[in-house]
Amino acid sequence: MREPYNESKNRKQEQLEKYKTNDKDKKLTTNQGLKVSKDEFSLKAGERGPTLMEDFHFREKMTHFDHERIPERIVHARGYSAHGEFQVYESMKEYTKADFLNDPSKKTPVFVRYSTVAGSKGSSETVRDVRGFATKFYTDEGNFDLVGNNIPVFFIQDAMKFPDLVHALKPEPHDGMPQAATAHDTFWDFIANNQESAHMVMWAMSDRAIPRSFRMMEGFGVHTFRLVNDKGQAHFVKFHWKPALGTHSLVWDEAQKLSGKDADFHRHDLAEAIDNGDYPEFELGVQVIKEDDEFMFDFDILDPTKIWPEEDVPVKIIGKLTLNRNVDNVFAENEQVAFHPGHVVPGIDFTNDPLLQVRLFSYTDTQLIRLGGPNFHELPINRPVCPFHNNQRDGYMRQTINTGQVSYHKNSLAGNTPEPAAESEGGYTHYQEKIEGRKVRARSESFKDHFSQAAMFWNSMSEPEKQHIIEAFSFELGKVKSKSVQQQVVDMFANVSLDLTRGFAEAIGAAPPQQGGSDVTKSSPALSQENTKKKPDTRKVGVIIGDHFNGEEVNGVLARLKAEGINPEIVSDTLNARKADNGSELEVDHTFLTGESVLFDAIYVVSGGKDESSAFTPDALYFVKEAFAHYKPIGATHSGKELLVEAGITNTPGVVTGEDLTTFTKDFTAAIAAHRHWDRQVV
């Protein structure tokens, strides 16, 4: 565990401090500052009489309550956020004039919001879905928003279809079901009839769509942007976030159970990690392509349904993001933050990616209704750390009190100020790309290959990952009522892989494809989570224990696990402290009722009942069997080994037993780092 974050406050934090208030030990007042003598009763005409309209305190209090919710986001409604800092490793001056990417000594404040896409604000967090990964950089040149996802491609190529996609994946309008799920007819009907979605669906049916943690998922800018240097030279770029802990996922049964056990599982995980000093870290990487190389690939680099394979275009790691502070108020920060891909700084520009182009309109438009007008940039969480000056005035919730008589450009009464800044003074200039063409509603022929990269994704998966994808299709399409839609999807994905489609066609009772398949043999090892970093850091271990355990050895194991960055938590049949044979005690964190196995990454069994010699409780037995079925590492010492015998799970991958303190903790730590043990036979 790291020491609490105690560095000097960054500029954004200092700015937010001005808006914070603590009402402890204060007298109650109205919003106008009038001290209130009573706050329990409305003003009445007699003790049993009617309430009087002149009760301004009641009307102010109730009016605020009636309006203290704002419309939730149509997509990405369910989200959680944290503050942090970004620091570039070395100057990127060769590629961009963006100041925050050129000064390795500078720490740029950031605010990151993670989210699910489909569900409402009250939905569960561990559903199968895309996850938003949006980052607001508060740079000295203005705010830069990298509004991305944990999947590098998207369902559609042109945002004209975005309302249709969202209508299809949202609860069906005739009955309002299902919530936060795509396992229904309208979504899959859309997929079958908009086959550009094939690549994205492969990602969505993979383990990437059920991440273990916000801290253990990649982030992608999705779109192709431009970097422009101070000489006016441009490069195409894609942005990547690489988690320091590696990219890891839940298993499907575990994710479903977590929805009931802890619908806030991902936000709990993020907030607790920061509170513990286990600050989440991500490295920023860029893929860069020269302008002259735009057409040298077998895919269109502007197509948002395509990746740039890392083996073809390597990811250059350029900096690190550290999340080190939780929000103080979820509404004021997490809900009121407004991201927009059009928030850029000098040195970062757009391309003709058709999905990106329309997002540049949509994001501002949606904030106008959600946040009540054009002044959402004045909310504390959205304010840039650098000064801003312009001739915009008035509107809902205006906070700036502009002085002077001039609110237009050009003018003489104020010396023609505020005046535009020259490029040499940091003024933003758009990259001068040459554009020629007729006005058409059409799509480039280079966008029409919908299956090659979907097949490459399938080819890149390990055997367990392929099986999970087949199971995901089987579950999702098994919920679809229309036999026609089911068959259309089978026929569509026969273009990706016959092994895939035959695998799920049988499960849903559809006719398996007799022809099809893909000629693509290319794979990209970077796409498989089996090739990610495997570290034990911040993993949570449930320790099942009773009284009269070997205090010296067990405390030694726990101390060594903590030294490896692992977080053990004690689980027993009650919350009473457990006593060791040497008189020491361990405080219990969870009972079997409040600390289900799905909440932990691994299990360490010391004993299963009230004391070391008692029989194991049914709860302890189920606890361990469930963890085993989810391919998690399991360790056992002392009478804990008897539980593994009773459960029939000895001598199998990822199960570690032993009495030697050093050997056991070393082997158990290695098993925890592996995350899952897929070669385990689960019966």
TrEMBL record:
GO CC list: cytosol
Catalytic activity: 2 H2O2 = O2 + 2 H2O
Cofactor(s), names only, from the UniProt record: heme
Cross-link 3'-histidyl-3-tyrosine (His-Tyr) placement: H340-Y363
Region listing for Disordered, in residue ranges: 1-33, 409-429, 509-539
Binding site for heme: R73, R113, F162, R359, Y363, R370
GO terms for biological process, alphabetical: hydrogen peroxide catabolic process; response to oxidative stress
Domain (Catalase core): residue spans on this chain: 29-417
InterPro entries: Catalase (IPR018028), Catalase_AS (IPR024708), Catalase_clade2 (IPR024712), Catalase_clade2_helical (IPR043156), Catalase_core (IPR011614), Catalase_haem_BS (IPR002226), Catalase_immune_responsive (IPR010582), Catalase_large_C (IPR041399)
Family annotation (SUPFAM superfamilies): Class I glutamine amidotransferase-like, Heme-dependent catalase-like
Keywords: Heme, Hydrogen peroxide, Iron, Metal-binding, Oxidoreductase, Peroxidase
Role played: Decomposes hydrogen peroxide into water and oxygen; serves to protect cells from the toxic effects of hydrogen peroxide.
Entry's family note: Belongs to the catalase family. HPII subfamily.
Protein known as: Catalase
Source species: Alteribacillus bidgolensis
Source lineage: Bacteria, Bacillati, Bacillota, Bacilli, Bacillales
